[in-house]
Amino acid sequence: MIEIAIDQNTVEAGDFLIARIHWAGDRRVNRIIAAAQWETAGKGNRVWGVGRSRVFVPNRGAHEATFPVRLMIPHEGPVSFEGTLIAIAWTLKVRVDQSGIDEYEEAPFRVEPRVVRRDAERTLAMQPG
Amino acid sequence: MRRYTGPVLPRISGKATPDGMLLTRAGVTAKDLREQLLLGAAFLIGAVAVLLGARARRFDDRPITYTISMYFLLCAGVHQYLVRRRLRRAALLVRPWPIRLGDDIEVKFRATFRSSTAIAAVTAKLECVEEVTIGSGRDQRKEHATLFAIDLPCVARPAGDRKFTESWTATVPDALPPSLTVRSNAVHWQVSTLVTTDGVDVPASFELLVLPEVARD
Fold it and tell me: B141 in contact with A at a CB cutoff of 8 Å?
């Protein structure tokens, strides 16, 4: 059993996704992987990518554990949006790597553009190609 | 569904100047010339195959069909090449750079033509376009959808002037997505211009970099 509790359903690009993951089970668990993942949807060929991920290793013999997750969403995004041909969605995906069949759970969240002051220096130093 | 590990923002060639980012376009490049030469070579191969078949008194409609197709393709390619060749160089100076959603941008466009021609009309627009690739191999196709477009006001310059300059200011809406480039899915922000000279439309397009940041007061 996997339970995911996300602190905020909306996160800005460049900010941190904070969540708590609770796992309970009878099987021997090798590791638990939590990843902030984005996927495209819509008419185009579908692709997916990972912003950041974290691996948690429970104590040997443990049958439950709760651990915090703090994953940075990349400054460059992509941000969540629903267009005419393309949609981008983010989810926090948790995979329990255990003996037998692995267990999965996920929780959606939104990534919004980072709000900055109009006169703020451009922090993303984009070099000319 | 394939995993993508590359950058999600486009890489745009330009030169940083004190007045902004300078983006340049040549009317035609060496790559365009190579494409025309390849088309010409493909047409010649077909023509030679037809002639050889005629000499051997062998009737086969495949070389004829191929040669006719290559002929039309070559004509279209050469026409496009000559149209674009009228433009020697186009440049766009953009400030600020990179752009944020909600930014008021200043754009200065300059085009230099190869000969003094009467510029009948100039149109330009700032647009946000989605582009997707569907399928793969021979079934692959691209689709586009315009999420946003505004016309930028232009004033036609008098005849005899090889250089044309125009400046615009525009606001990038903050409710739209930023630039995106991943496999098979892209969101392009661009300034598209069309200069009409002697009844011919000469296009020049410049991609802009819009960050996933929103400017607020």
Answer: no
